[in-house]
Design the sequence.
């Protein structure tokens, strides 16, 4: 297995800069793993592939406005801080620019002193910083919400008309540095149609990190270090999934983040899904045995990415690459705000 096996030529003109409106009007490439057949549909057709008793599992995490711009207290130099995950109470692992000039002990001021950050350590594995935040008044997260911006992927260069464009209709608690983008295609009307068919919508949480945008640099992807992400699979979701399996219904995962959460909550000794909360560094590559997911709704992913490798593990590398080439030939819109795939 080589990283170059998951490379493809992505025309920059196909990288979507804005979501379509309404969101469920995007295109849907349906991929049948058994037959290899590819069908070109629209996302509003998704309910046709669902049956009564199926479970649709979504990620309910919300994107935190985690990009903060401040100044170094000593020099007044501009500093950009991207919050990645909270390691301890009010202490966050961050990406800091320009990082090499921001050492432990540096103090960063945001706004008019509404929020300050003290750099307390360098995170060796990522080159990021641990920053202890404190608010002038109120809670730290309240200050972050006032001062921060939603961090968009680097390939989206056009500002959003509305920050809610980068939030799913399922979003609840602000915890992520990036959106679980497969969920962006759903609208309240589509959810009503899905529920009316007798399909159960279950929820998990996985806090999406910025590592999702980073291509694998190693020649052998098995040498790649994937960052851990916090996840929660609750008792109600476990009950819904197990009940679906017992009656012969299917589990549809909305996005690679849902796959990662569900597979991380599978207990191989008990051979069942269990309620679980914690950190996962599960890196799903071809050869992985999927224990929970029967179908996958996903976006088109960047070349050489861990997400493309996961999708290839699920559907087979050759079929996925053929599907990507078909999508490019048909000028599908790609990446976070782009069109979708349904893999059956």
Sequence:
């Amino acid at each position: 297995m080589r990283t170059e096996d998951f490379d493809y030529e992505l025309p920059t003109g196909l990288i979507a800069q804005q979501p379509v409106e309404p969101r469920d009007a995007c295109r849907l490439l349906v991929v049948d793993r058994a037959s290899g057949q590819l069908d070109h549909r629209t996302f509003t057709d998704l309910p046709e592939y669902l049956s009564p008793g199926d479970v649709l599992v979504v990620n309910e995490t919300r994107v935190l406005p985690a990009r903060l711009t401040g100044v170094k207290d000593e020099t007044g130099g501009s500093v950009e801080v991207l919050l990645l995950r909270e390691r301890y109470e009010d202490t966050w692992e961050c990406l800091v620019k320009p990082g090499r000039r921001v050492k432990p002990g540096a103090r960063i001021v945001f706004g008019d002193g509404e929020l300050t950050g003290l750099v307390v350590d360098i995170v060796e594995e990522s080159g990021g910083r641990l920053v202890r935040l404190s608010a002038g008044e109120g809670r730290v997260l309240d200050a972050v919400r006032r001062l921060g911006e939603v961090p968009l992927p680097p390939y989206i260069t056009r500002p959003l008309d509305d920050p809610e464009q980068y939030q799913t209709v399922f979003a609840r608690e602000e915890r992520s540095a990036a959106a679980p983008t497969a969920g962006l295609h759903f609208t309240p009307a589509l959810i009503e149609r899905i529920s009316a068919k007798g399909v159960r919508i279950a929820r998990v949480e996985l806090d999406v990190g910025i590592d999702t945008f980073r291509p694998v640099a190693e020649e052998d992807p098995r040498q790649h270090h994937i960052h851990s992400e916090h996840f929660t699979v609750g008792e109600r979701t476990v009950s819904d999934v197990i009940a679906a399996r017992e009656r012969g219904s299917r589990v549809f995962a909305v996005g690679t983040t849902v796959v990662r959460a569900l597979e991380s909550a599978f207990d191989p000794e008990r051979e069942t899904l269990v309620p679980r909360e914690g950190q996962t560094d599960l890196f799903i590559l071809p050869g992985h045995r999927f224990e929970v997911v029967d179908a996958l709704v996903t976006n088109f992913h960047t070349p050489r990415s861990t997400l493309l490798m996961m999708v290839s593990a699920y559907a087979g590398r050759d079929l996925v690459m053929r599907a990507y080439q078909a999508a490019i030939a048909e000028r599908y819109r790609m990446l976070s705000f782009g069109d979708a795939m349904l893999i059956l």
